[in-house]
Amino acid sequence: MRAAQNERLTRIGPETPCGALLRHYWQPIALTAEFDPALDARMGVRPAKAVRALRQDFVLFRDALTRKFALLDRACPHRGADLAYGRLESAEHGGGIRCAFHGWQFRADGQCIATPGEPKGSRLCDGIRQRSYPVVEKSGVIWAWLAPEGVALSAFPSLDCFVAPETHSFAFKGLWNCNWLQAMEVGIDPAHASFLHRFFEDEDVSASYGKQFRAASAGSDWPMTRVLREFESPEISVEATDYGMRLTALRRLSETLTHVRVTNQLFPQAFVIPLSIDTTITQWHLPVDDTHTYWVAVFTSFGKPLDKPLMREQRLKLYSLPDYVPRVGKHDQYGFDPLEQSTETYTGMGHDINVHDQWAVESQGEIQDRTKEHLGTTDKAIIAFRRQLSNAIDAVEKGDAAPLQWSKSDAARIVGPITVDGICAADSWDAYWREFDSKRRAACKWFAENRRDPSPDSASPNHPLPAGEGNTRA
Question: How far apart, in whole angstroms, are the C-alpha atoms of residue 80 and residue 100?
Answer without folding.
Answer: 11
